[in-house]
UniProtKB/TrEMBL annotation:
Positions of the ABC transporter domain: 11-234
Keywords: Antibiotic resistance, ATP-binding, Nucleotide-binding, Transport
Main location: membrane
Protein known as: ABC transporter ATP-binding protein
GO molecular function: ATP binding
InterPro entries named in the record: AAA+_ATPase, ABC_transporter-like_ATP-bd, ABC_transporter-like_CS, ABC_transporter_ATP-binding, P-loop_NTPase
Organism of this sequence: Catenulispora subtropica
CDD domains: ABC_DR_subfamily_A
Gene3D superfamilies xrefs: P-loop containing nucleotide triphosphate hydrolases
Chain intervals for the UniProt region annotation (Disordered): 297-326
């Protein structure tokens, strides 16, 4: 489907904030997703992906901020049949066959796709006559997928859609999703996997500790994840001086150990050795996504009231940090 110029974005979140008791799960998220975009919400456990998705779907009321879906409130958009969702939790209904679950979902939408077509497209047809409660985890996910698609919604919101799905099932899933994206639908999905986000999304929004810590095309986010770090024992040198070394983007100190995050680890290592002969126990590590998450989260240690006390800090108490980039 095509959208006229000036049409409202698929999703607009402004200042979205949500806490559960003392845990600030989402802290002022601003996010605009153009109609027709495919966006991955990527982040580690507890980053706030599901909380953001639940707010987008009107399943939970934010403490502050607004949610707009195609210029309407979430509940208006859902009532108008504009949204299809695939959530992590939720049991299949009892006493219904798989086909009936999908038929029931179709009945909620003004212009659903033919049920049989969707059953075949999603690979659900082969077990459509089974009881919906008697399925494997992966099959159950596929039924949720069929239910999300059958209403032919303009916005698809998928929370970790391939969790529990085997490799073949994942490939089929993403093949169908590519087709849906080609039809101009807006797609938002949450995932832990950079590879999945990279393969499928136009844009990756990286969440950590309830905030957006990076937002851009997959290539940009991959570059962040590719950051290498140098560890060394080097007492009595200020982190600010280490951050100034060529190839270094940030430096942290933990006791006598310094950790340098590097855009160019080779150049940084040479500069470190020539500038600080006392540096020893050198170690160069390839950047993992987890490290990138942690690095990007470091500058979120602002001690704002309500910071989730239950969430452990990635930086040891008393650690000194300088020049952390985001
Ligand atoms: N119903 C709830 N009650 C209390 N705390 C909650 C609840 N739901 C989420 N949280 C907390 O809010 C924070 C964000 O959780 P959320 O589920 O949004 O993260 P996520 O990025 O989806 O994580 P995951 O990848 O593990 O699903 C976490 O600290 C989590 O423990």
């Amino acid at each position: 489907m095509s959208f006229p110029d000036g049409a409202p974005p698929g999703v607009r979140l402004v200042g979205l904030t949500k806490s559960y008791g003392r845990v600030l799960a989402v802290r002022g998220i601003d996010l605009t997703i153009g109609a027709g975009q495919t966006v991955a919400l990527l982040g580690p456990n507890g980053a706030g992906k599901s909380t953001t998705i639940d707010a987008m779907l009107g399943l939970s009321r934010p403490d502050a901020g607004t949610v707009e879906i195609f210029g309407r409130t979430a509940s208006e958009a859902i009532r108008a049949g504009l949204v299809g969702a695939m959530l992590q939790s939720g049991q299949q209904p009892e006493y219904l066959r798989v086909r009936e679950v999908v038929e029931l979902t179709a009945s909620y939408y003004p212009r659903p796709r033919p049920v049989q077509e969707v059953l075949e497209l999603t690979g659900v047809a082969e077990f459509a006559d089974r009881w919906a409660t008697r399925l494997s985890g992966g099959q159950s996910q596929l039924v949720r997928f069929a239910a999300a698609l059958v209403g032919d919604p303009d916005l698809l919101v998928l929370d970790e859609p391939t969790a529990a799905v085997d490799v073949a099932g994942r490939n089929d899933f993403w093949r169908v999703m590519r087709e849906v994206a080609r039809q101009g639908k807006t797609i938002v999905f949450a995932t832990h996997y950079l590879e999945e986000a990279d393969a499928f999304a136009d844009r990756i929004v990286l969440l950590a500790r309830g905030r957006i810590v990076a937002d851009g095309p997959a290539t940009e986010i991959k570059a962040l994840a590719g950051t290498r770090t140098i560890r060394a024992t080097l007492p009595e040198v200020e982190t600010g001086r280490l951050t100034a070394l060529p190839g270094v983007t940030s430096a942290q100190r933990h006791g006598e150990t310094v950790i340098l995050s590097c855009a160019d680890a080779d150049t940084a290592l040479r500069a470190l050795l020539s500038g600080y002969a006392a540096a020893r126990d050198l170690e160069v590590r390839g950047g993992s996504l987890e490290e990138a998450f942690l690095e990007l989260t470091d500058d979120q240690q602002d001690g704002a009231p309500g910071d989730p006390a239950e969430v452990p800090s990635p930086v040891a108490d008393g650690a000194e940090t300088a020049g952390v980039n985001s």
